[in-house]
Specification:
With 96 residues, the protein is of the alpha+beta class. It has a single domain, classed as Alpha-Beta Plaits (2-Layer Sandwich), CATH 3.30.70.100. Helix content is 38%, strand content 32%. It contains 3 helices and 4 strands; from the N terminus they run βαββααβ. The longest helix is centred in the N-terminal third of the chain and has 17 residues.
Length: 96
């Protein structure tokens, strides 16, 4: 079974307080579900059409585990705190 990677990019964060509340719950929800946060923050360098936006990379043992983490009650509770405080894109990609 291949590893899976959850890639989140934040186009904007309009409510820093909501983002902080989300971050307080989302990290533990993800790690409890088996995720390993590999990188997070602003890019060190961008190329081509790259955008200067916060990016988070999380490794899971499988696509199914990544999807279950996202859909878990604990992560959904964090999402409720974020509300419309950020515009972001989340992708789950299967490893090679």
């Amino acid at each position: 079974m291949s590893k899976a990677y959850w890639v989140a990019t934040y186009r904007s964060i309009s409510n820093p307080d909501a983002f902080a509340a989300y971050a307080k719950l989302s990290g533990p929800a993800i790690t409890t579900a088996g995720g390993r946060i590999l990188a997070r923050g602003m890019p060190s360098q961008v190329y081509e059409a790259g955008l200067e936006q916060r990016t988070v990379l999380i490794e899971f043992d499988s696509v199914e585990q990544a999807k279950a983490a996202h859909d878990s009650p604990a992560y959904q509770e964090a999402m409720a705190l974020l509300g419309d405080g950020a515009v972001r894109d989340i992708r789950i990609v299967e490893g090679l």
